[in-house]
């Protein structure tokens, strides 16, 4: 029963004390968030992974790429545990190392490998945090960097200082929305088409590209529409519409603001009491914000509940299981990135952490 699980998790946490830290992403359900020692967006959770070097283990209540990142950034003797190994991210799965390598080789054929007169290389690869460690490693090896939704513009600036163009994967929407806000015209953001190799892609557009987009997207954020925003404005005059930058471009353009999960949270916290918000992001987070802020009216843009089904795979039952196993001396569901990938992946992550806004 829920009560029994609650009792077991609390008892395990009390037994473990500071030996173990539980991190939770904003999209986790309340029944999991209640046990988290730290809750944040993916950038904050990456920082949190190294904030407790004394802890023997980090239990990551989030998805696989986040746990991998925690493993990359935590100490060598710390273990990272993902309570349910089936908690992946469908967007992260839309780019794999083989297809990115193939794309890269074709771009090298197109643009060559020589820097221009000001020392900028032909292409800088930028991977969204929502990607496998292998892709972060690819970026580390090829002069590239990682970004999250909270620092994408800073990271793109970093990349434009060093490269004539950017190859951005896997999320086309974050890439497009961020580059557009920085003044890159849409016609200079062609999308790489893996089914049309070199020559089949629009060669002219690729030649003139500033940002080459990948075809990935988030199935949760893809659901938000301009019609939903129009309806929210009609039904709630004065409503502030805030969406996540993983939403399609017309939705971000129609919204009042776009930002990471932490940006959304802070915008709500800063608002005068009595504000009304329509939010375009995952439902568990929106419902929690609504419950935490009874002084505001907060609702999800999508009237049909839209959870992230993979985030939802972290259930208190799994949490109880991994904690009790740890007490018994067994580390279950450990996420460990092999050294050959971890070394270059850390380089790309460190570049992100050092990039200044
Ligand atoms: P944040 O970086 O805003 O936490 O978003 C992570 C994510 O997976 C959004 O879908
Ligand atoms: Fe991945 Fe979308 Fe879920 Fe975020 S909300 S973890 S991008 S599937």
TrEMBL record:
E.C. numbers: 2.5.1.72
Catalytic activity as recorded in UniProt: iminosuccinate + dihydroxyacetone phosphate = quinolinate + phosphate + 2 H2O + H(+)
Location relative to the cell: Cytoplasm
Pathway given in the UniProt record: Cofactor biosynthesis; NAD(+) biosynthesis; quinolinate from iminoaspartate: step 1/1
CC cofactor note: Binds 1 [4Fe-4S] cluster per subunit.
Binding-site list for iminosuccinate: 25, 42, 128-130, 149, 244-246, 261
Binding-site residues for [4Fe-4S] cluster, renumbered to this chain: 89, 218, 308
Broad class of where this protein is predominantly found: cytoplasm
Single GO molecular function: transferase activity
Cofactor: [4Fe-4S] cluster
Keywords: 4Fe-4S, Cytoplasm, Iron, Iron-sulfur, Metal-binding, Pyridine nucleotide biosynthesis, Transferase
Functional summary from the UniProt entry: Catalyzes the condensation of iminoaspartate with dihydroxyacetone phosphate to form quinolinate.
Family: Belongs to the quinolinate synthase family. Type 3 subfamily.
Protein name, per record: Quinolinate synthase
The species this protein was found in: Subtercola frigoramans
Shown part of the complete sequence: 67 to 423 of 423
């Amino acid at each position: 029963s829920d009560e029994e699980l609650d009792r077991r998790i609390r008892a395990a946490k009390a037994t473990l004390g500071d030996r173990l830290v539980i991190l939770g992403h904003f999209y986790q359900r309340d029944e999991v968030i209640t046990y988290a020692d730290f809750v944040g967006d993916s950038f904050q959770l990456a920082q949190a992974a190294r904030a407790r070097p004394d802890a023997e283990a980090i239990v990551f209540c989030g998805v696989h790429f986040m746990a991998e990142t925690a493993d990359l950034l935590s100490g060598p003797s710390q273990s990272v545990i993902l309570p349910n190994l089936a908690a992946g991210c469908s967007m992260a799965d839309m780019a794999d190392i083989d297809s990115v390598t193939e794309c890269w080789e074709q771009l090298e054929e197109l643009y060559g490998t020589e820097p221009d007169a000001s020392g900028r290389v032909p292409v800088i690869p930028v991977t969204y945090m929502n990607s496998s460690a292998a892709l972060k490693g690819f970026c580390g090896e090829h002069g590239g960097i990682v970004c999250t939704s909270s620092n994408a513009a800073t990271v793109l600036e970093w990349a434009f200082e060093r490269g004539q163009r950017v190859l951005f994967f896997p999320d086309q929407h974050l890439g497009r929305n961020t580059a557009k806000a920085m003044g890159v015209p849409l016609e200079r953001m062609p999308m790489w088409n893996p089914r049309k190799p070199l020559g089949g892609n629009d060669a002219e557009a690729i030649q003139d590209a500033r940002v080459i987009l990948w075809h990935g997207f988030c199935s949760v954020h893809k659901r938000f529409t301009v019609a939903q925003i129009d309806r929210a404005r009609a039904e709630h005059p004065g409503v502030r519409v805030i969406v996540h930058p993983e939403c399609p471009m017309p939705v971000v353009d129609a919204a009042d603001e776009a930002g990471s999960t932490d940006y959304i949270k802070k915008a709500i916290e800063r608002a005068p009491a009595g504000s009304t918000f329509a939010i375009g992001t995952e439902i568990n987070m929106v419902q929690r914000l609504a419950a935490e802020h009874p002084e505001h009216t907060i609702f999800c843009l999508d009237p049909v509940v839209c959870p992230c089904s993979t985030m939802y795979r972290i259930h208190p039952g799994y949490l109880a299981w991994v904690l009790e196993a740890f007490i018994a001396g067994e580390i279950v569901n450990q996420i460990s990135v092999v050294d050959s990938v971890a070394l270059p992946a850390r380089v790309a992550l460190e570049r992100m952490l050092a990039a200044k806004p």
